Amino acid sequence: xxxxxTNIIRHAGKVAPDERTAATGNRPCIVWLTxxxxxxxxxxxxxxxxxxxxxxHPAYVLDGDNLRHGLNRDLGFSPEERxxxxxxxxxxxxxxxxxxxxxxxxxxxxxxxxxxAIRAMVEPGQFVEVFVDAPLNICEQRxxxxxxxxxxxxxxxxxxxxxxxxxxxxxxxRHPEIHLHTASQSVExxxxxxxxxxxxxxxxVD
Amino acid sequence: xxxxxTNIIRHAGKVAPDERTAATGNRPCIVWLTxxxxxxxxxxxxxxxxxxxxxxHPAYVLDGDNLRHGLNRDLGFSPEERxxxxxxxxxxxxxxxxxxxxxxxxxxxxxxxxxxAIRAMVEPGQFVEVFVDAPLNICEQRxxxxxxxxxxxxxxxxxxxxxxxxxxxxxxxRHPEIHLHTASQSVExxxxxxxxxxxxxxxxVD
Lengths: 206, 206
Prior knowledge:
- Two copies of one chain form a homodimer.
- By secondary structure, chain A is an alpha/beta fold.
- The first copy, chain A, has one domain (24-200): Rossmann fold, CATH 3.40.50.300.
- Helix content of chain A is 43%, strand content 13%.
- Chain A has eight helices and five strands, in the order αβαβααβαβααβα.
- Chain A has a five-stranded parallel beta sheet with strand order 2-3-1-4-5, sandwiched between helices.
- The longest helix of chain A has 20 residues, at 79-98.
- Chain A starts with 16 loop residues before the first helix and ends in a 6-residue tail after the last helix.
């Protein structure tokens, strides 16, 4: 990514962060769920979204697959394009957080550097990294999108599919704010644990 | 823009549009302000944002300049890059609208085709095109960013700057939902007129 935009003046908004917090009951926040395909990221994100919205907190799921239907549909799956996919997701999450909407980001996001770059973009405390941890064999048994089956077949034919955890690396978070174990914890327990964290850290203030 | 993302499964969200409307008092909506540099787009957008948030309606300004600091900082000002700038802005606006936040988009967006492409992406009634109309000579007198001065100097030296309205075209909306004349209307009148439209068309429901 080359920075080409120059000669740009940033407009100061008229809405102060405190006014948004008063209106929404949230402080700016990006909940970033990372983990293998099939680990349960999207299921947890959507259940969390539903509970937040039902209790009056604006929240929205940004999802790898869904973004690729729109904003990121010009991107493929090369390492550079994966990095750009995550960069744009992070930038959109930052806009949501700034708008007072809790951004629930569900992305495999295998590279620590890409995740750390988003953390570095926002204020301390705004980036909540959630490691949705499940052993590869469990994810592969679940295989909700049939990706593991496809990857194994492709590898047997000598065509790498670059699936994270199979023939592409996953760099586990070393210091995530929240570490979930979905082989043993239910979706409800995971959601509860994230909500408790957000309240404890004053990201939710009512 | 080449579509490269394939093999993508869209997750259905768990939050129904009616639940979001109940929580926010808005229906999904993109207010798209288009017009020359200096016509008053950003000033109107920010005043509108402030009034909406103060009355409990989530709203957020997406601004050409501000997006270029983050999401679109890899884009320059060639015709293709301008088109991609507007495409991404439209995609982000669609995500905001889907999240229940009124997206207030302030972009020169000189090409009708680019604006129409965003209109075509969303449901009928969701895209509210606002033509922020002011004669070039008025915009040039205001010149809040000094762009006209810079463009005239560049042209005098034989270097085109591709500034909309000076040495690059502006295609005025033919059927905008709202047509504002900022040489004669105040910011307050313009904001009032947009709010009245949103209420009349049931984009604001409380």
